Amino acid sequence: MKKTLTGLVLYLAVFSAWAQQSLSGKVTDAKTGEVLVGAFVWTENLGKGAVTDEKGLFTLTKLPMGPLELRISYLGFETYRQLVSVPYSGQLEISLVSKEILTEEFIVSATRAAATTPTTFSTVDKSEIAKRNLGQDIPILLNFTPSVVSFSDAGAGVGYTGLRIRGSDQTRINATVNGIPLNDAESHGVFWVNMPDFASSVDNIQIQRGVGTSTNGAATFGASLNFQTDTRQDEAYAELDNGFGSFNTWRHTVKAGTGLLNNRFAVDARLSKITSDGYVDRAFSDLSSWFVSGGYYGEKNVIKLVAFSGKEQTYQSWWGLPEDKLENDRTWNYYTYDNETDNYQQDHYQLIYTGKVGSNWKTNLALHYTYGRGYYEQFREDDDFESYGLSPVTIGNEVIESTDIIRRRWLDNDFYGFVGSVNYVSTDGKLDVILGGGANRYDGGHFGEIIWARIAGNTNIRDRYYDNNAIKDDRNIYAKATYEVSPGLNIFGDLQLRGIDYSFAGVNDDQRIVDGQESYTFFNPKFGFSYEKGSQTWYASYAVANREPTRSDFTDNPITEVPRPERLNNIEAGVRAKSGRLSYNANFYYMDYKDQLILTGQINDVGAYIRENVESSYRAGIELDGAYQLSSSWTLGGNIAVSQNKIREFTEYVDDYSTEEFQQESFTYTDTDIAFSPNVVGSAIIEFKPLKNLSLNWLSKYVGRQYLDNTSNEARSLDAFFTNDLRISYSAQPRFFKGLELNLLINNIFNELYEPNGYTFSYFVPGGNGRELVTENFYYPQAGTNFLLGLKMKF
Question: Which positions fall inside the TonB-dependent receptor-like beta-barrel domain (predicted)?
Fold first, then answer.
C-alpha cells in the first residue's frame, strides 16, 4: 500500500509539472508592422498577465492545460481578444488595429519641442518617473537629468524642495501643466510643496534647457518644465501605492480609473497622503493631495476636465544651519516655537478642448483657474511696536516700545485665464505652423495678522498690520513654423509678443506704502535649423527672452528706481542620435545676459536688501548625455555639463557697524562666478537586470563648488560633493493582480555629508585694527544614508 501511495504521489507530481504550460507571443501594429512595447496581455479566466518587452514579446508561464481567453490592450489601439488552447505550439502573432480616436498629445504640443526643433531638451516618460517616485518632490525626481542640482530645506526630499538648471533657479524656469502656466505670477517661483505626489499623475515631462520654444506664463530665462498629466487608459484599473522610509516618512496613494466607457468616456482619480519628520530637527511635513480628470474622446475632438489640489503644513526650516554647527549638529533648527509652520492650499481647475478640423488642422483651447490661500506663522521675540505700525504702550511710568509677538503672514490669490493654439500641417508634411497664445490675470492679496502679543496694548486678535493687493495681466501671442527645405533639412522660426501690466497698492510688511504700476512689452524671436542624417539630428538656434522684475524688486526698491527688465540672448547647437543600443546628445550653449538682477548687498531706505541690475554676464558650457545597452542585462547611462558662468563686473556693498553711524562700503569685482552655478555637474546610472523582473540601479551624482554670492570667495561657498544611491526594483504578476512592484531606494549610501544650498552675508564690526570683517554662512544640509521602500499593487 505504501509503495502504491508513493507511486501515486510521484505520478501526480510529474503530471502536475507536465501540465504547467507556457505561452509566448509578439504584439505589433497592424498598419506599420512595428512592435508595440508595453502592451498589456491579460488572461481573463486566470487573473494573470504580462507586459511586452522592447521587442514586443511576452511570455505567460505556469498555465494549466485547456482553453485560455487572452485580452491584449494598448493605448490608442482596439482591444484584442483571442481564445487559445493550451498547450499551444509555436508563438502567437498578434496585430493590434489603431483606434479612430483623437489622442491627447496635442494638448501640450504647442509649447513643446519636436524631434526636428532646434533646441536642447530631454523628455522623462511615465515609466521613468514611476521608477523614481517614492513620495519625494519633483525636483528630487529630476535630480539625475542633465545640468540639474536639487535640494531640500528639511534634508530628506519631502517638504520645501527646489532645483536649478544650468545654475538658474526656479524663478527663472518656466513651468506649465498641460500648457497652462504654473509659476507664481509675482515671485515667478514654483512651490512644489503645494503639489505633493503630483508625479503620480504625470504622464511625461519635457525639460527644455535655455530659452527653448515660446510658451505661456513666465519667461523661460534658464529652462522650462512642461508637464502632461495622465492620459486616458483604455482598461479599468486600480492601484494602491504604499511606502515608508527613514525619518518616519510614510506615503499612501490610491489611484483608479474607469477605462474607456462606451468607447468615448473615461474618468481617472488619485488620492495621496505623505508625512515625514524630516532630517532637520522638527522639520516635519504633512501633505495631502487629490487629482481627478474626466474626458470625452471622440473621433475628432477631446473635451477634458482636470482638477487637482494640494494642501501642506510644514514646520519651518528656512533659517538654515550656521557654519559652526556643520560638524557636530547638522540637524539643528533655529526655530523653537511649536507652531512655527507654513500652511497653504492650492486648487487647480482646467477645462481643455482639442479638436481636429479636416486633415490638416488641429485646435487646442484651455480655460483655467487656480485658487491659493494660506499663511506662515512666526513667533517674534522682542519686536518693536513701530514695526507693526503700533504706538508704544505706557504702563504706569514705564513706556514699553517692544514685546513678544506671534504673527501670521497671508497670501490669498486667484489666477485665471485661457491659453490656446491652432496647428496647420501641410498635406505633404513639409510645413508645420502653430499659432498660439494666452491671456491670464493674477489677483493677489498680501496681509499680516497679529494673533498674540505678550503686551497687547491697543491691539485685537487678527489685527492686520499690513495689507496690500496686486493685479497682474500677462498676455502673449506667438507663431511657430517648421519647414522642410530639402530631405532632412528643416528651418524653424518662432516669434512671440508678450505684454504685462502690473499694479500694486497698499501697505507693505515693512510699513511702507507701496503704490505703483508698471507695463512692459517684450518681443522674443527665435530662429534655427535642424538636419537629419541617418540616426543623427544636428541643430543650431538663436533665441531671445525678456523678463520683468519680480514682486520684491518693485516693492523693496524705491518706486522711482525700479530695476530694468532682464534680457537673454541664447545660442544652442548640438547633435542627438539613437542607433541600436546607443543613444546620445551633445550640445554647446551660450547664454548672454543683459541687466541680470542679482543681490549686491545694497539696501533700501528701511534697511532691506535689494537686487540690482548688472550690465553684462553670461553662461557658456557643453552638455553630454547618453545611454548604451551593453547586453540584455547591463545598461550604462549618464550626463555631464562643464561650464563657465561669469559676471563681467559688479559692485558689492558691505554693512559697516564699526563706526557710530551706520554706513556701507563698496567693492568692485570683475570676471567673477555667478552664485550657485557650479562649473561641473554630472550623473551616472548603471542598471543591471540579473532576472527579467529584477532591476538593480546604481546612481551617482557629482556637483562642483558653488559660490553663495557673486564674489568668487571660497570662504563663502559650498563644497563640491559626490553622492551614490542604490535602487532595487522587483515586479511580479501573481494571480488576481495585474502587477506587483516592490521598490527600495537607499539614498546617499556612503553617508556623504553635503550641502547643495545656502546663503551668506558679511559686515564690518569694531576690531583690533579699527574694524573686522565678519562673514556668516548658512547651509541646508542633506540627510546621510537613508531609505525609502514602496509597494505598488495593480488591479
Answer: 329-749
pLDDT at 87: 86
How many Cβ atoms are within 10 Å of 758's Cβ, its own excluded?
Answer: 20
pLDDT of residue 16: 41
Strand order in the sheet with 173-177: 120-125, 202-209, 223-229, 173-177, 180-181
- At residue 447, the pLDDT reads 97
- Assess whether 752 and 643 both reside in one domain: yes
Last residue in a domain, options 204, 229, 254:
229
Nearest to 77 by CA among 234, 227, 192: 234
Would you say the C-alpha torsion 551, 554, 555, 556 has a positive or negative sign?
A: positive
Contact 479, 495 (CB under 8 A): yes
Minimal CA–CA distance to 167: which of 626, 548, 676, 562? 676
Cell numbers given for 177: 501643466
| Amino acid (one-letter) located at 741 | E
**DSSP code for 359:** T
* CA distance linking residue 210 with residue 323, whole number of Å: 34
CA–CA gap between residue 762 and residue 321 (Å, rounded): 16
CB-facing half-sphere around the CA of 674: CA atoms within 13 A? 26
What is the DSSP code string of 514-536?
--EEEEEEEEEEEEEEEEEETTE
Residues 126, 245: one domain? no
Q: Which residues of 276-295 are buried (b: 16+ CB within 10 A; e: fewer)?
A: bbbbbbbbbbbbbbbbebbb
Looking at the structure, tell me whether residues 396 and 464 fall in a common domain.
yes
Inside any domain, residue 564 = yes
Cα(125)–Cα(292) distance, rounded to whole angstroms? Answer: 20
Whole-angstrom Cα distance, residue 350 to residue 309?
12
Torsion angle of C-alpha atoms 415, 275, 127, 352, degrees rounded to 10? -20
- Largest separation between any pair of C-alpha atoms in the chain: 111
Sequence-ordered list of residues with C-beta below 8 angstroms from that of 770, at least 6 positions apart, any chain? 658
* Nearest partner of 619 among 74, 61, 147, judged by Cα: 147
For the chain, which ranges sit under pLDDT 70? 1-20, 75-76, 99-103, 559-560
Q: Are residues 27 and 121 in the same domain?
A: no
Integer distance in angstroms from the first to the last C-alpha of the chain?
47
pLDDT score for 39: 85
**What phi, psi does 528 have (nearest 5°)?**
180, -175
Looking only at the bridges linking them, the beta strands covering 173-177 and 223-229 are parallel
CATH number of the domain that 86 lies in? 2.60.40.1120
pTM greater than the 0.90 cutoff: no
Residue tagged 559688479 (cell numbers)? 650
The answer to whether residues 414 and 507 belong to one domain is yes
CA distances from 570 to 69, 213, 480, 531 (A): 57, 12, 17, 20
15 phi and psi, to 5 degrees?
Answer: -65, -40
Alpha helices in 82-121, H assignment, sequence order: 106-109
Distance of CA 457 to the CA centre of its chain: 46
Helix (H) or strand (E) holding 35: none
Choose among 41, 6, 227, 242: nearest CA to 133.
242
- ∠ CA 30-32-38 to the nearest 5 degrees? 70
Cell of 379: 513667533
d(CA 306, CA 698): 36
Structural domain of residue 48, as residue ranges? 21-96
Give the span between the Cα atoms of 710 and 706, in whole angstroms.
10
670: cell is 570683475
Instruction: Give CA–CA dist 238/236, Å, rounded.
Output: 7
Question: Counting runs of H as helices and runs of E as strands, what totals does the chain give?
Answer: 5, 44
Match 548658512 to its residue by C-alpha cell: 778
Q: What's the residue count for the chain?
A: 795
Please name which of 89, 80, 31, 25 lies closest in space to residue 55, comparing C-alpha atoms.
25
What are the CA-CA distances from residue 695 to residues 52, 642, 692, 739 (Å)? 16, 30, 8, 16
Whether 2 is covered by a domain: the verdict is no
